[in-house]
Design goal:
With 372 residues, the protein is α+β, with helices and mostly antiparallel strands. It has 5 domains: 82 residues, DnaJ domain (Helix Hairpins, Orthogonal Bundle); 57 residues, no CATH class; 89 residues, HSP40/DNAj peptide-binding domain, CATH 2.60.260.20; 73 residues, Sandwich (HSP40/DNAj peptide-binding domain), CATH 2.60.260; 33 residues. It contains 10 helices and 15 strands. A 4-stranded mixed sheet has the order 10-11-15-14. A hairpin with a 2-residue loop joins strand 10 and strand 11. Helix 2 packs antiparallel against helix 3. The chain is elongated, with a radius of gyration of 38 Å. The N and C termini lie far apart (88 Å).
């Protein structure tokens, strides 16, 4: 046993590796040194056998437990826990099965000829801020792959049929033997279909597919947000071998608004007012998505005060009612004043007792407490 390498070392995994870790490591390393990819390389063949032996043990919970306890000296197996003869291929149906599992060689024809769903199509739909809030109906054009009407998807010229592939004789697979190993791979001539087209359809150039422009109408629900996706089932590319069409995935892009920002189903609005309006109070017109509403700014409103106007936000998606409009007040101080305006403000300041500025009074009281 001196020439045997530790099975965990062979697979390049830790002893704490999970079953999935072991499986992934085995598949990766087996692909790298498979003899079919290295014809005549005895070293690659030896590494591949070593990998299979390690995987045989570590992928079996019972064998792995015995190996972790006894190593290569399991008393149940007379010094070799795995039969002394290396890896046993009998339980895996031969090397061709291993190759099939790793490279998809086995069953290639059946997969190629089985019904397959068509490819999904992505479409970027741009809508306005208002359309997203209230919902809308949009009409747009897109392109998709469809079954050729001339050959009905066969790829062969009307009146003719695809012939049997001369390379694989219709099996879709190529088998080759090299010593003790038999490998199976997908036929390169027919791609695993077992059929070849000798007289191609002129409508689709033998592909069985044509690209067509289609028009679609989609109802965008009220309340949808930027980046959300609407899926229209069966509107994508045509399937193959009788498989269903793919889907049309419509990703919604909402254009920004000049006034409003969105927070969930609420709308946010920065609203500037003068310091006179803030001090004395005022009735103002607040813009909404559907016109304007009257709102009273109370006397003594401070900068950064928020007011909430109910049911003036975005329609709730798949729900009832609307969000709110949250108005963020910005008190604007004038930058340029006339001399008369300055004088009036000086006169006002001279009449101030300190009670008018609650925040300033509180701040000055704190200063006195600190330094006295």
């Amino acid at each position: 046993m001196a020439d045997k390498r530790d099975y965990y070392e062979v697979l390049g995994v830790d002893k704490s590796a999970s079953a999935d870790d072991i499986k992934r490591a085995y598949r990766k390393k087996a692909k790298e040194c498979h003899p079919d990819l290295h014809p005549g390389d005895k070293e690659a063949e030896a590494r591949f056998k070593e990998l299979n032996e390690a995987n045989e043990v570590l992928s079996d919970p019972d064998k792995r437990a015995r190996y972790d306890q006894f190593g290569f000296n399991d008393p149940m197996q007379g010094g070799d826990p795995f039969g002394g003869g290396g890896f046993d291929f009998s339980g895996m149906g031969g090397m061709s099965d291993i190759f099939d599992q790793l490279f998809g060689g086995g069953g290639g024809r059946s997969r190629q000829n089985a019904p397959m769903q068509g490819r999904d199509i992505a479409y970027d739909l741009k809508i306005s801020f208002e359309e997203a809030a209230d919902g809308c109906e949009k009409v747009f054009d897109f392109y998709r792959s469809e079954v050729c009407e001339q050959c009905h998807g066969s790829g062969a010229k009307p009146g003719t049929q695809p012939g049997t592939c001369p390379t694989c004789k219709g099996s879709g697979q190529i088998r080759s033997s090299g010593g003790w190993m038999t490998t199976v791979r997908t036929c390169p001539t027919c791609g695993g279909k077992g059929k070849v087209i000798t007289d191609k359809c002129t409508g689709c150039s033998g592909t069985g597919r044509i690209r067509k422009r289609r028009t679609c109408t989609v109802k965008v629900p009220a309340g949808i947000n930027h980046g959300q996706v609407i899926i229209m089932g069966g509107k994508g590319d045509a399937g193959r071998n009788g498989g269903p069409n793919g889907d049309l995935q419509i990703q919604v892009s909402v254009m920004p608004h000049k006034l409003f920002k969105r927070d969930g189903f609420n709308l946010l609005l920065d609203y500037p007012i003068s310091f006179t309006q803030a001090a004395l109070g005022a009735d103002v017109d607040i813009p909404t998505l559907h016109g304007s509403v009257k709102y009273h700014i109370p006397e003594g409103t401070q900068n950064d005060t928020e007011f909430r106007i109910k049911e003036q936000g975005v329609t709730r998606l798949r729900g009832s009612g609307k969000g709110d409009l949250i108005v963020h007040v910005r008190v604007e101080v004038p930058r340029k004043l006339s001399e008369k305006q300055r004088e009036l403000l000086r006169q006002f300041e001279e009449t101030v007792t300190g009670k008018e500025y609650e925040g300033r009074k509180s701040f000055l009281d704190k200063i006195r407490d600190v330094f006295n």
